[in-house]
Amino acid sequence: MPDSPLIVARGLVKRFGDFVAVDGIDVEVRPGESFGFLGPNGAGKSSTMRMIGCVSPPSGGTLQVLGMDPATDGPRIRARLGVVPQRDSLDEELTVEENLWVYGRYFGLPRAVVQERAKELLEFAQLTDRASSIVEPLSGGMKRRLTIARGLVNTPDILLLDEPTTGLDPQARHVLWDRLFRLKREGVTLVLTTHYMDEAEQLCDRLVVMDRGRIVAEGSPRELIDTYSTREVLELRFDTDDHAHRLGDVDGIADRVEVLADRLLLYVRDGEAAHAEVLRRGLEPLSALVRRATLEDVFLHLTGRSLVD
């Protein structure tokens, strides 16, 4: 069936000795969607991706990728996957173009096909003018775009991206998001891990929030925010070493209050009205910021921790 899930995991487990990295998760990824695993470092995201990519066997549960079992059909599955690892593994002594040629030959593609595909991918990655450049001196953003282009050489059914923009500056991240958004519009199925809430909101149609190897929530970014947070958040910073001491001062203003080391987060329907009430009470915060709720707030509500902990 054309709409059957491309990835189905049931009770999926990954252990390393006594340590349980992935603790019985259920996941389905549908054709053409951009699906994300959101969580802090150590949540089990990369371990899950390695199982889906058929380079790490599950310790328990069941996993099907493209209707096949990774335990018996690993090579056939890998031939239909594109993989963008967390760290670039480019051949830095070769040129940009040669990296694509060599990778295409790994898949047994004819030389003429690889060369034509390389031209298309260099244009997609905005690297045409650097085709003959040695890779080593390129910027981090260029190397990341080349790694994504390389992952598309075999025209994969699924593109796996592990922390695609870690270490990039804001401008390079936005260029990369634009390239991935174009892939999504073309119907490429994307599966990505990230600990950046803005990245998940930008790229993911649907995602799971992971913490300590388990899934704690699932849905679209908008659904998760609507379910687990208020529409707006008022951030207050006071001149104090412990913001918990100011909880009584803001009692009754918000639906919920979270105490962080350097500020209070007031979860409210109307941030400006809440700020006006703070001032009416004679409180004098060092700073006050009204913002819309994000996936960071969802994670904080579900786990009591920040995504960057």
TrEMBL record:
- Name the GO terms of the biological process aspect: response to antibiotic
How does the protein associate with the membrane? Peripheral membrane protein
Sorted UniProt keywords: Antibiotic resistance, ATP-binding, Cell membrane, Membrane, Nucleotide-binding, Translocase, Transport
Instruction: Tell me where it resides.
Output: Cell membrane
Residue ranges crossing the lipid bilayer per the database entry: none
Write out the GO cellular component annotations. Answer: plasma membrane
Principal location listed in the UniProt entry: membrane
The reply on keyword Nucleotide-binding is yes
Show the GO MF annotations.
ATP binding; ATP hydrolysis activity
Instruction: Tell me its family.
Output: Belongs to the ABC transporter superfamily.
What this protein is called in its record is: ABC transporter
Species assigned in the record = Actinotalea fermentans
What lineage is this protein's organism placed in? Bacteria, Bacillati, Actinomycetota, Actinomycetes, Micrococcales
